[in-house]
Amino acid sequence: MAKILQPDLCVIGGGSGGLTVAAAALSLGASVVLVERDKMGGDCLNYGCVPSKSLIASAKRAQYMRTATKLGIAAEDPKINFGRVNEHVHGVIADIAPHDSVERFEGLGATVLQGEAKFTDPKTVMVGDQAIKARRFVIATGSRPMSPPIPGLSDVDYYTNETIFDLTRKPQHLIIVGGGPIGMEMAQAHRRLGSDVTVLEMQAPLAKDDPELTNIALKQIRREGVDIRQGVKVTEVAPKAKNIVVTIEKENGETEEITGSHLLLAAGRKPNIEALDLEKAKVNFDGRGIKVNKGLKTSNKRVYAIGDVAGGLQFTHVAGYHGGLVVRNALYRLPIKNDATIIPWATYTDPEIANVGLTEADARQKYGDKFKVLRWSFAENDRARAEHVEEGLLKVITTPSGKILGAGAVGHNAGELINIYALAVANKMKIGAFTKMVAPYPTQFEIAKRIAVEFYKDKVDHPALKFLLQLNRMLG
Ligand SMILES: Cc1cc2nc3c(=O)[nH]c(=O)nc-3n(C[C@H](O)[C@H](O)[C@H](O)COP(=O)(O)OP(=O)(O)OC[C@H]3O[C@@H](n4cnc5c(N)ncnc54)[C@H](O)[C@@H]3O)c2cc1C
């Protein structure tokens, strides 16, 4: 057996969360062992954010070509070379990969072990025959696609996010099980790249977001030809010649068969915990993931869990946020608090949907009717008009005194617009702060300024203001 490694930190998983912890700890002079069993960069780089956003970029460009007429350019039916699209997607991954590579992390001073980590007791992890007894362990092993218990699934070739980006030929008819963010992003992208697409969703599509916002995006996605079936249960799948037949049961009990060329499962995620032998580490977990307290510590005080495996919001920026917190506590014992209420998220459909803090429904549950909802349409924004991206809505939720509780947007670049509200929510800012700033004209950001002015609209009826105006008139 090799010499036992005794670093300050042993990070298990070289994805978004694990790499954040490793890079930050190394920059602060800590010793780090980083363990990765598959590809460095994890889900986000190899099978998630990066390939999906790259595919969406190709799809968006194709759509712009189709819809150029309203800007005075002859619209064209784009000639899509799916193989080339695939090369673009993998080119972007390859471009980013060096930043997440073994070489980079070894260069920063980490000991990188390529293998599967397993606990053998509460203080020891083994990777092959290498033992690691770290001062602290960080589990950042992420999640993987869940296969729903659909009869016949094992008889057909199906895709998940781990395989769909390997397609070099356009799927003729892609059937997607699951209408969450991943399912809807993939649905619109493939439709724009020329596939027929059917989405099968048991409840409502994009159900975690505000329906007033999602309805605007879903209307557009349907308009582009994606067949979204909601309230349907997939009861069976079966192969038929070169195709796949999916049987669905509708809310009224009727059944229907849908035939497609490809099947994509986007129906939830499972935490990667099985290989870790968590019982031996005395780390508690359930089906959603590893149980952590507000300080991201597990039931074993030497062990933290972060990112997707920690069972909360599953986003790259959450894994990164967790990583930053854990380094402070693990290296310096500084107090930390994982605050999920400040986390924004975006769904990269076109129009995009983004949110931070409380939605209108959350606010109603928490404050009854003691809150304000401000709305501003993108159609009122000159930049949106100039670019013909008028379909969109910003909603801001405040307390009666103007503290920003949350914001949600649907529209062109809504994911960018939400950043300023993420700043506002994290810093408990009031809407008045937006009235003090000047936004360059014409930018989409002016919407944020206009909506703030809306907050004060009913205040012009205040008797004191009316009196002041009257007084000034009298004074001449
Ligand atoms: C299609 C898709 C699109 C997405 N788009 C976005 C997006 O636009 N924005 C966003 O914020 N999020 C997005 N996500 C979510 C994002 O990818 C994840 O939230 C993020 O990758 C989680 O980071 P993590 O560090 O927790 O796990 P990961 O990045 O998955 O890293 C975990 C790593 O641990 C390794 N591992 C597991 N078990 C072991 C073991 N026992 N020993 C050693 N190594 C192990 C794995 O191989 C993996 O590399 C998307 C996800 C998908 C599937």
Automatic annotation (TrEMBL):
Tree of life domain: Bacteria
Cofactor needs: FAD
Coiled coil location: none
Domain FAD/NAD(P)-binding: 8-323
Binding site for NAD(+): 178-185, 201, 268
Disulfide partners: 44-49
InterPro entries given in the database record: FAD/NAD-bd_sf, FAD/NAD-binding_dom, FAD/NAD-linked_Rdtase_dimer_sf, Pyr_nuc-diS_OxRdtase, Pyr_nucl-diS_OxRdtase_dimer, Pyr_OxRdtase_I_AS
Transmembrane segments: none
Keywords carried by this UniProt record: Disulfide bond, FAD, Flavoprotein, NAD, NADP, Nucleotide-binding, Oxidoreductase, Pyruvate, Redox-active center
UniProt keyword NADP present: yes
Binding-site list for FAD: 53, 141-143, 308
Gene3D superfamilies attached to this UniProt entry: 3.30.390.30, FAD/NAD(P)-binding domain
One of the Pfam families matching this protein, by short name: Pyr_redox_dim
GO-annotated molecular function: flavin adenine dinucleotide binding; NAD(P)H dehydrogenase (quinone) activity; oxidoreductase activity, acting on a sulfur group of donors, NAD(P) as acceptor
Cofactor notes: Binds 1 FAD per subunit.
Ranges for domain Pyridine nucleotide-disulphide oxidoreductase dimerisation: 343-448
Family listed: Belongs to the class-I pyridine nucleotide-disulfide oxidoreductase family.
Name the UniProt record assigns to this protein: Pyruvate/2-oxoglutarate dehydrogenase complex dihydrolipoamide dehydrogenase (E3) component
